[in-house]
């Protein structure tokens, strides 16, 4: 998924010449802009009827602007699940999750060297993990989320040098609902 999104970013890039944007618009809004990001998150997911696990993950994402205000993201995560933070780790799981998302910019405001933003996202994917109590699980999911963050800009080019963000996602799983809160950062080109 990450390679697909990165390839779309390379193919969509109109020109690799002057990156300064006319009228002070942030370059990240240009089709073909590619952002590579890392995220760590915490939440809870349903794994079986009336059973939930605490979800810890670390992930990598490739995000490409497909139209001004619209971005496509491919994500890969390593998962660590446990039954409860208060119980010894006798019930736990380890695995991976892949997801695709479409993001839309809701609000943006540039203040000095910061481009503040609020994005909504919609997507889906699947996780595969080995649970010590339930065995091997393949779990599809859908999600809706909100991301708030900022791009630290190079003032002369309006070029994001660093992106930092907070995210919140509600997950819809065959076994019930879940949620994830994450902190991430990335670099764009």
Q: How does this structure look, described?
A:
The chain has 189 residues and is mainly β. It is built from 1 helix and 8 strands; from the N terminus they run αββββββββ. An 8-stranded antiparallel beta barrel has the order 1-2-3-4-5-6-7-8. The longest helix has 11 residues, at 2-12.
Any chance you could write out the topology, listing elements then pairs?
Blueprint: H1 2-12, E1 34-48, E2 51-67, E3 70-82, E4 92-111, E5 114-131, E6 135-154, E7 159-173, E8 176-188
Antiparallel strand pairs: 1-2, 1-8, 2-3, 3-4, 4-5, 5-6, 6-7, 7-8
In short:
The protein is mainly beta and 189 residues long. It has one helix at 2-12; strands at residues 34-48, 51-67, 70-82, 92-111, 114-131, 135-154, 159-173, 176-188.
User: Which band does the percent of strand residues land in?
Assistant: over 45%
List the total number of helices: 1
- Radius of gyration equals 18 Å
Q: Report the principal-axis shape.
A: elongated
Reading side by side through the largest sheet, how are the strands ordered?
Answer: 1-2-3-4-5-6-7-8
CATH topology: Porin
- The first-to-last residue Cα distance is 19 Å
Question: Main sheet, how many strands, which sense, barrel?
Answer: 8 strands, antiparallel, barrel
Order of helices and strands: HEEEEEEEE
Assign the structural class, choosing from mainly alpha, mainly beta, alpha/beta, alpha+beta, or little secondary structure.
Answer: mainly beta
């Amino acid at each position: 998924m990450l390679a697909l999104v990165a390839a779309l970013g390379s193919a969509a890039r109109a020109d690799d010449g002057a990156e300064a944007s006319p009228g002070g618009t942030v370059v990240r809004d240009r089709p073909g802009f590619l952002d590579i990001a890392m995220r760590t998150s915490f939440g809870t997911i349903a794994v079986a009827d009336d059973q939930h696990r605490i979800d810890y993950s670390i992930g990598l994402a490739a995000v490409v602007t497909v139209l001004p205000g619209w971005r496509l993201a491919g994500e890969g995560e390593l998962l660590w699940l446990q039954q409860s933070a208060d119980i010894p780790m006798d019930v736990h799981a380890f695995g991976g999750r892949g997801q695709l998302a479409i993001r839309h910019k809701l609000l943006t405001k540039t203040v000095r060297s910061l481009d503040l933003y609020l994005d909504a996202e919609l997507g889906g994917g699947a996780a595969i993990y080995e649970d010590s109590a339930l065995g091997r699980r393949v779990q599809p999911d859908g999600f809706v989320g909100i991301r708030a963050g900022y791009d630290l800009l190079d003032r002369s080019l309006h070029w994001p040098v660093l992106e930092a963000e907070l995210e919140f996602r509600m997950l819809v799983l065959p076994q019930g609902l879940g949620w994830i809160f994450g902190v991430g950062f990335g670099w764009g080109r």
